[in-house]
Structure to design on (185 residues):
């Protein structure tokens, strides 16, 4: 990719336990799988077919603060029980999974998440990564996280802050190589 892409920043991510966020909660449970994953993440339209759009958003956690919440508030922040990963039906509206329930959007807003924790001299948290066949689903979910539609901001903000968002286009693969023909490669 070197002639086409300039590297200006690296954040090393890692796989934590069975795919958990550093809060200890399992991340990726409600990801679409198989054909549904491809439908969510890969473009099918002429020209863009096989490519994907990816949003990368770095969140810095205050884990000391999160630990001080106590077990019930922690579960209600995410909207799932840490003990068995079950969704809490009567979790508050600001619980993260209440804000982001993909089938609750109109149209449904499915993305394929591949987030990874990071921990370095700048802090620790989650590098959120979501692939989509466009940025529309990510954008709809993000508006709900921010409370743009109903004034209710996601409980994530009680212990974590987004440092920045980057948007990328991932080319399709052709003969085992990224197909860069659309960008003159
Ligand atoms: C501090 C950052 C974040 C953390 C720690 C976090 C953590 C989690 C956890 C633990 C779950 C429940 C298990 C699962 O289904 O994966 C979840 C679900 C989800 N998150 Fe996040 N997340 C973060 C940021 C975001 C952002 C920025 C988005 C924006 C698109 C997002 C979208 C989703 C979606 C779509 C679900 C599944 C909801 C469902 O359909 O039930 N998350 N997240």
């Amino acid at each position: 990719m070197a002639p086409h892409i300039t590297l200006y920043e690296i954040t090393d991510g890692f796989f934590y336990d069975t795919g958990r966020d550093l809060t200890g909660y399992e991340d990726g449970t409600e990801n679409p799988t198989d054909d549904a994953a491809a439908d969510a993440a890969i473009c099918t339209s002429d020209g863009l077919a096989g490519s994907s759009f990816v949003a990368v958003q770095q969140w810095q956690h205050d884990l000391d603060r999160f630990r001080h919440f106590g077990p019930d508030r922690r579960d209600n922040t995410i909207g799932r029980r840490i003990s068995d990963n079950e969704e809490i039906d009567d979790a508050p509206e600001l619980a993260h999974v209440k804000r982001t329930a993909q089938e609750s959007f109109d149209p449904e807003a499915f993305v394929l998440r591949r987030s990874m924790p990071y921990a370095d001299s700048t802090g620790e948290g989650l590098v959120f990564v979501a692939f989509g066949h466009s940025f529309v689903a990510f954008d709809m979910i993000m508006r709900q996280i921010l409370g743009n539609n109903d004034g209710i901001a996601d409980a994530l903000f009680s212990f974590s802050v987004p440092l920045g968002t980057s948007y990328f286009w991932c080319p399709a693969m052709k003969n085992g190589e990224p197909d860069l023909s659309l960008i003159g490669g």
User: Anything to note?
Assistant: The pocket of protoporphyrin IX containing FE is lined by residues 21, 23, 25-30, 57, 59, 78, 80, 96-97, 100-102, 111, 126, 128, 130, 138, 141-142, 145, 156, 160 (CB under 6 Å). The longest helix spans residues 136-146. Residues 50 and 172 are 5 Å apart (CA to CA).
